[in-house]
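This section describes the prediction task in plain terms. A model, or a person checking by hand, is given the sequence of a single protein chain and must write out its three-dimensional structure as a string of tokens. No templates, partner chains or ligands are provided. The sample shown here is typical of the held-out split.
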Amino acid sequence: MKNHVNARTNQEQSRSGNVKRRPLYQSAAEELAEIIAHTPPGDRLPSEPKLSDQLGVSRATLREAMRLFEERGLILRQQGVGTTVVEMPQVIDSGLEVLESLETLSSRMGLTMTMGDSEIRLRSPKAEELEQFDIPRNARLLEIKRTMLAEMRPVAYLVDVLPEGILPRGEIEERFTGSVLDLLLERKQPTLSHAKTEITAVSASPEIAHHLNIQRGDVLLCFKGIIYDDSGNVVNRSESYFLPWTFRFHVLRRFDDVMNVVERNRKTNDG
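The expected answer:
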């Protein structure tokens, strides 16, 4: 038994070296994801000893990998019963041409979107925010952080920052259900004009990982947005972190404008 454990430990160390110090449980999780994907919801996975042998990792490493899927609600581990595969949550599919809230999007899809834990506070602006919002140093900003749940599962962590007074704090505490955008649109003042959004892939910080029930360092989709009013002033700055396996975003790209540019360039060159 001791030789068997030592052999497996050596095998894990060798595999860990091949992936340049990448945590071994992450490699095991990728293989485990394939097994889960091919197991019908309601069916049980092989026992831990069998999975451990199949993946070539220790049971401790296997449990660490399984915890990733358990926290995402994809498997259910029960003492004396085993590990059952849970039905995957519905993917939230959306185009990016129109800015709309998660609540609006989920309602159109027939999903129940609710707000989980939240934090609303007034704070002093950072140096870059003074310039961005064009506010005096003694101004205060309203910061709203919250976790959004789809069918009671965490799917997104949202942070909005806006100058104090644009949305009265009392109104937020009474009526807020998760969408700052919807409140701004309902108030109609200031008049919103357009938004700019930067989309990147980021690693989950300890704070965000805690709220989304994932591991620190897991990959998230990050949307950093700025909303402008009809005078060009910044009304709202937001950071939205999405679990990639619960969202599918797409952009409708047209050819007509591109072809017009090509035609104009051709005529210019011909002239």
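For orientation: The first strand starts at residue 75 and ends at 78.
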